[in-house]
Amino acid sequence: MTVSTADSRSLYRTVRLIRRFEERAIELVRTGDIVGGIHPYIGQEAVAAGVCAALAPDDLITSTHRGHGHVLAKGADPARMLAELTGRVTGLNKGRGGSMHAADFGIGILGANAIVGAAGAIATGAAWARRHLGKPVVAANFFGDGAVNEGMLLEAFNLAALWRVPVVFVCENNGYATTMRVDDAVAGTITGRAAAFGIPASVVDGQDAEAVLAEASKAVARARAGGGPSFLECRTQRFDAHHTFEHKVRMRYRTDEELVAIRSRDPLDIQGARLAGADRHGIDEEVESLLDKAVAFALDSPFPDPLTAMDHLYASGMTARPGSDF
Amino acid sequence: MPLLSYQKALNRALNDAMAADDTVFVLGEDVRVAASNVTVGLAKRFGPDRVLDTPLSEQGFTSFATGAAIAGMRPVIEFQIPALLFLSFEQITNHAHKFSLMTGGQCSVPVTYVVPGSGSRTGWAGQHSDHPYSLFAHIGVKTVVPATPTDAYGLLRSAIDDADPVVVFAPAAALGVREDVDFASLEPVPLGSGRVHRHGTDVTVVAVGHLVHDAIAVADDLADTVSVEVFDPRTLYPFDWDGLTESVRRTGRLVVIDDANRTCGMAGEVIATMSERVRLAAPPVRVTRPDGAVLPFSLELDRATQPSRAQLAAAVSITVKER
């Protein structure tokens, strides 16, 4: 597959946007504007950028606890995303979800889900429903290497394959489930799990956005044509911490030498090298300006009223009994 | 008037809901052949695309339903046995229930989970005989336990129409109950509305599910000496606290009979809430399964673990003696 110049630029911009968004978010964790911390996506940006570039606007995604990249790549407004991370009422989820639950149903983002492996069946059900309703779309289900040992995800593979549901299962293998090395956690192979259900599986260079786009495009086309689910194992690297708490409490599970090797193939450099210098610089400035405005929007936005803490608990509008009468 | 069985009422509710709304579909294990009898005829009438036989993957198909619901469908899951709710508890409580709030109201999850045959089925032992409704009420998932065929029909219709997840427990001991019903009069029963089956002045007995029928029988037996009011909450969450408060204010006495384990059970919640709201004339009493009960197999042991009419009669007598 040849990638057009426009696609190359667009992929670079997405990778750059996610990278700088995450770096800004980490600063906001340090300043205390984001409470609870985040799971930085730095190093894995090419996966979200490549997969979401293969999707149409109506297509669906489900995301993970390390989900900022997926949400941004699918088109969420960085300002409303940062407002969500800082707990503001202007956030995507009105400050009710935070970093691990960002959702934007209007553009097919069915939510980041913080329970590892849980979203596979949700994405499968959503894609099945849209086909049943005569409005077929493709759903991309992101998850990490840790999720391939969750039984419920394997159940989702089976249902999707049985019913030929248009889902693309995207495994981001970053080598570690928190601190556990993938080799210590996974018996057999990751793609072998998909193969067991008859789901076509391939291994992709997850540091190269264009390679991801190429493979994801094939999977999306197969799903759209009625060919059922596909599985991509995107080999990638987590440059930063599992969670920002590691910035304060160092956990020694990766050696300094290993970290150098992990960071040696940067998706930003790989995609950036495909652009003319001036072009790249222009995109960087545009992204920076966008994020300046996003941070200002977030920090200038109001916090939700504590009296509304249980708003939206029931979609039916039912209200819950208060915890105290006083 | 024709007789309507509880089981047939559930089937009729599914038929009517599916006919009324194309987005309603049923999924579960053995639902096409209707192993539980509740889904009889649905596959033939509505076709296989709306009656999905699932593999034995309770976690998978429970979240599949959540995904279908947020994408515009109204799934109804049948769980053949109550223990399957333990397998899918994470999917219901951590996802289906939480999505509305966590997304700031961007989605609704209108899934109904029906358990035809909850509680003891007589001889099905430890892993097929639980009544875990208080777990869902505690989490805040709408929880319904109809006692009569009319209410089984009406509450299942309302559960399917509701914008939120609802668990419908159909107690095994109630599935055979029959009622003279004008079928044309069947209609949805709103969630959260209780029902007084028998009016009385001395004591309010709150009975859950099939135990409503036992409570009515005990009230009849004691009628010469005690005037018992039988209150059927019908929905455990949301609970009709105002309806029950009105009853207990009149009688001043409260007994609860609840076929579930004692600690953190619905009986405890009913007594706590009434104690907050009403100055009772005598200490309230509850009749429940024992703490931590695991239903033993042997018939006498199975029966001995569940609340009995004799226990309820004794509880009522003790409560009214405290004058």
Give an account of the 3D structure.
- The complex is a heterodimer of chains A (326) and B (323).
- Chain A has 326 residues and is an alpha/beta fold.
- In chain A, helix 1 packs parallel to helix 12 and helix 5 runs parallel beside helix 6.
- Chain B is an alpha/beta fold and 323 residues long.
- Chain B has 2 domains: 183 residues, 3-Layer(aba) Sandwich (Rossmann fold), CATH 3.40.50; 127 residues, Rossmann fold.
- In chain B, helix 8 links the parallel strand 6 and strand 7.
- In chain B, helix 1 runs parallel beside helix 8 and helix 3 runs parallel beside helix 5.
- The mean pLDDT of chain B is 97.
- Chains A and B meet through strand 2, helix 5 and helix 6 of A and helix 3, helix 5 and helix 6 of B.
**N→C terminal distance of chain B:** 44 Å
Report mean pLDDT of chain B, rounded to a whole number.
97
Tell me the count of domains of chain A.
1
Give me the side-by-side strand order of the main sheet of chain A.
2-1-3-4-8-7
Cα radius of gyration of chain A in angstroms: 20 Å
Protein structure class of chain B: alpha/beta
Rough outline of chain A: globular
| Count of beta strands of chain A | 8
| Strand percent estimate of chain A | 5-15%
Q: What structural category arises from helix and sheet content of chain A?
A: alpha/beta
Largest sheet geometry of chain A: 6 strands, parallel
Per CATH, the superfamily of the largest domain in chain B is: Thiamin diphosphate (ThDP)-binding fold, Pyr/PP domains
The helicity of chain B comes to 25-40%
Key features of this structure:
heterodimer; A: 326 residues; alpha/beta; Rossmann fold; 6-stranded parallel beta sheet; two-stranded antiparallel sheet; 8 strands; 12% strand; globular; B: 323 residues; 2 domains; 7-stranded mixed beta sheet; 5-stranded mixed beta sheet; 13 helices; 14 strands
Topology at a glance:
The complex is a heterodimer of chains A (326) and B (323).
Chain A: H1 5-30, H2 45-53, E1 60-64, H3 68-73, H4 78-85, E2 109-113, H5 119-132, E3 139-144, H6 151-162, E4 167-173, E5 176-177, E6 180-181, H7 182-185, H8 190-196, E7 201-205, H9 209-224, E8 230-235, H10 256-262, H11 267-272, H12 277-300
Parallel strand pairs in A: 1-2, 1-3, 3-4, 4-8, 7-8
Antiparallel strand pairs in A: 5-6
Helix pairs in contact in A: 1-2, 1-12, 2-9, 4-12, 5-6
Chain B: E1 3-5, H1 6-20, E2 24-28, H2 42-46, E3 51-53, H3 58-70, E4 74-78, H4 84-87, H5 89-96, H6 99-102, E5 112-118, H7 133-139, E6 142-144, H8 149-161, E7 166-171, E8 178-180, E9 195-198, E10 203-207, H9 211-221, E11 228-232, E12 235-237, H10 241-251, E13 254-258, H11 266-277, E14 285-288, H12 299-305, H13 309-321
